[in-house]
Amino acid sequence: MALNRRKFLKESAVTGAGVALAGAAAAPAAQAAAAGPAAGAGAAHGPGRHPKRYALTVMGTTDLHGHVFNWDYFKDGTYSDAAGNAQGLARIATLVKQVRAERGRENTLLLDAGDTIQGTPLTYYYAKVDPITAEGGPVHPMALAMNAIGYDAAALGNHEFNYGIETLRAFERQLDFPLLGANAVDATTQRPAFAPYVVKTFRVHGAPPVKVAVLGLTNPGIAIWDKAYVQGKLAFPGLEEQAAKWVPKLRSMGADVVIVSAHSGTSGQSSYGDQLPYVEDAAANVARQVPGIDAILVGHAHLEIPELKVVNDKTGKTVVLSEPLCFAERLSLFDIELVFVKGRWQVESVSASLRNSNEVADDPEITALLTDEHKKVVAYVNQVVGRATQTLTTVEARYKDAPIIDLITKVQEDVVKAALAGTPYASLPVIAQASPFSRTAQIPAGNVTIRDLAGLYVYDNTLVAKVLTGAQVRAYLEYSAEYFVQTAAGAPVDVEKLTNANGRPDYNYDYVSGLRYDIDIARPAGSRIRNLTFGGAPLDDAQQFVLAVNNYRANGGGAFPYVASAKEVWSESTEIRTRIAEWVTARGELDPKDFASVDWRLTRDGVPVF
């Protein structure tokens, strides 16, 4: 079945431009044939003195995270939210067809800015349950969809590396277009490990062709977040320095237009602190610092930016950036007007806008192509693995110690204790961290399914054991407590405004089990942890603990103190989500008395908030 579909895609995909690809690991699709002559939108304004013009439209998506259909696998139903958004590549396919009909396919490019093969049970299923790496294995649903839609190139995202390099390379081989990553280099040779760029040629009647270069850049944080997979194999230098290296080369090769597809936000900030000398959200920096760029498709931050104009420091030229909302909810459009003067094409103007997936229906071609894969995953996530004695929810988990989060820490404690049995670390007490990833996760009373547990732990994190001292654990908790907004005793408490201080996301707030402590939110950050005890006695700063921690946090994600440099005594490649399912399956019953404990509470001047 997979081979027949692959044949269908290769025969049905239409390309509107010639292509030249440079760099290592070029995808097979990069050898697409050049298109025939095309006028382009307003390509020629008559003979004689009038300058020739050409209109190019570049479409872009980002942070698709495995969303093919407008379906919520965790709720087992059509996706919906308060804003009325719709998701999925099937909707994007309809929007793309509309734009191609308006502009002429031969005058368009379709790009993506990364984070494609992780994020839903659909992507997990084809990475782990029915893996694309198996001999004779399936074609990844995201490859099937993106090939059928006719993407021209995609930048690597950091989540592309979550399942290891083997899975990423298998996905790359299944694509009919290149995966770009100019700053994903071989750790030894420093040469590109993926194609840095692609050059597309657009034919214009009565004038030289327009050459459009697309440079791909990814996130340096991969070196931290997926250290277990990439250390010693790949390195990820900063976006700014790599853009400064490659953009002049593309211009010297005759590129009339330079587009950057960057898996990097615009804030100029990082979530990995000082662990790397690079900026995580560097797209605006690239626009500001590197001459020669016309537009940047932005990703990673999961924000909606219709159009952002950044002035280059050296040339004074305006660079246009756009970030479509994640999960295929929006499509960015860059409309680029060129004029042929003094023997060369020059970019006259660039504008950006968004189109909304909720305004169209699913493309029937994508629906027909991927219905079988979708049904397999729906059946998988609805498998019953146990029964819950009561409903558990994350609704209040950000500001109250919720039993549903204690389930995560209990599973992690049990797994690490079993793993360390018989080792020199077996005598150390095991504590565990977990974050309230979702505000809407629920495990209902009665049958518990895989999707219930997957909705609780939405990331594909794995488990690591690190040794920390009591003093280091105290500092860890203080850093975590910065998540709460300082609220004076007696002041009204609005739970919707109580958390996410300084933009701290929910996934960077940690519970730590096995201890007892108060978080006094009336006090300034850095001095909030009060009454910290272990085993009923004040915490001994010299006491050693084994912290059961997810790999994102263990490698420095969130910039929590000490944990990244702490001694690692054990790790594994099985997802924490899978461990939770195994734990529930082994017991058959999910009863809070087996895992729930009150480890922490919020206070103000010693008085409980709730």
Write the layout of secondary structure elements.
Blueprint: H1 2-12, E1 18-22, E2 52-61, E3 71-72, E4 77-78, H2 89-103, E5 108-112, H3 121-129, H4 141-149, E6 153-155, H5 165-174, E7 179-180, E8 185-186, E9 197-204, E10 207-217, H6 222-225, H7 227-230, E11 234-235, H8 239-252, E12 257-262, H9 283-289, E13 295-298, E14 305-311, E15 318-323, E16 330-341, E17 344-356, H10 364-381, E18 384-388, E19 392-393, H11 403-420, E20 430-434, E21 442-443, E22 446-449, H12 450-456, E23 462-469, H13 470-481, E24 511-512, E25 516-520, E26 529-534, E27 537-538, E28 544-550, H14 551-554, E29 567-575, H15 576-587, E30 589-590, E31 600-604, E32 607-608
Parallel strand pairs: 2-5, 5-6, 6-7, 10-12, 12-13, 13-15, 18-30, 20-28, 25-31
Antiparallel strand pairs: 1-9, 2-16, 3-4, 8-11, 9-10, 14-15, 16-17, 18-22, 19-21, 20-24, 23-28, 23-29, 25-26, 26-27, 31-32
Count of separate DSSP helical elements: 15
CATH architecture of the largest domain: 4-Layer Sandwich
CATH topology of the largest domain: Purple Acid Phosphatase, chain A, domain 2
Strand order of the largest sheet: 1-9-10-12-13-15-14
Describe the overall structure.
The chain is α/β, with parallel strands linked by helices. The chain has two domains: 376 residues, 4-Layer Sandwich (Purple Acid Phosphatase, chain A, domain 2); 226 residues, 5'-nucleotidase,  domain 2 (Alpha-Beta Complex), CATH 3.90.780. It is 25% helix and 27% strand. It has 15 helices and 32 strands. A seven-stranded mixed beta sheet has the order 1-9-10-12-13-15-14, covered by helices on one side. Helix 4 runs antiparallel to helix 10 and helix 11 crosses helix 15. It is globular and about 90 Å long. The N terminus is likely disordered. Its main location: other. GO terms for molecular function: 2',3'-cyclic-nucleotide 2'-phosphodiesterase activity; 3'-nucleotidase activity; metal ion binding; nucleotide binding. Its cofactor is a divalent metal cation. It catalyses: a ribonucleoside 3'-phosphate + H2O = a ribonucleoside + phosphate; a nucleoside 2',3'-cyclic phosphate + H2O = a nucleoside 3'-phosphate + H(+). It holds the Pfam family Metallophos.
